[in-house]
Amino acid sequence: MMNVKKIGAAKIATAAVLSAAALAVYVVESLFPPLILPGAKMGLSNVFVLLALVCLGVGYAFAALAVKIAVGNLIVGNFSTLMYSLPAGVISLAVMSLLFFNGKSRFGLIALSVAGAVVHNAVQNAVYALVTDTPAVLSLLPYLALIGVLSGAIVGAATYFALKIVPKSQWQRLLDGVG
Q1: Distance CA 153, CA 7 (A)
Q2: Which of 60, 50, 30 is nearest to 157 (CA)?
Q3: CB–CB of 21/133 below 8 Å?
Q4: How far is CA 42 from each of CA 36, 76, 131, 159, rounded to the nearest angstrom?
Q5: Which of 25, 45, 24, 42 is nearest to 33 (CA)?
Q6: CATH 1.10.1760.20 corresponds to the domain 4-176
Q7: CA atoms of 30 and 68, how far apart (whole Å)
Q8: Residue 104: what pLDDT?
Q9: Predicted TM-score (pTM) of this structure
Q10: What are the counts of helices (DSSP H) followed by strands (DSSP E) for the chain?
Q11: Domains of the chain: which residue ranges?
């Protein structure tokens, strides 16, 4: 049997790798202009946050998300987006966590990711409306929801294929120190 310290170290190391990958993709993605609407991004860095959620658990997923958002905005130099991204990321990850752990048999990775993306866009838009006192921006919600469905489906599919390449059982073996 593996000792607890070694399992903890393996999980922390895996979480660090996933966080670093999420951060790198986040920074690279910030170099590209927004999609159809201002601020609309594909969110490919969320593949690694979703992998952390599914393979490591909620706490590690929140840690990966926090690193991605906080350090990513420091690197990119866009501090104003921190106040929009952080609440949106936390709430969307909370929704995905609830759906994943309370409805495992009903929600696949694509559905989880779509739910997270739609919630993220809605919360970010609502925070922007509150901070700027511009309720008219809420009229973008239907378009942002559509973008969330599309980008969430892509992120969910990418996560699904990542788990096909390295199955969850292999992640577990890695974390248990077996192989």
Answers
A1: 32
A2: 50
A3: no
A4: 11, 17, 24, 14
A5: 42
A6: yes
A7: 12
A8: 63
A9: 0.87
A10: 7, 0
A11: 4-176
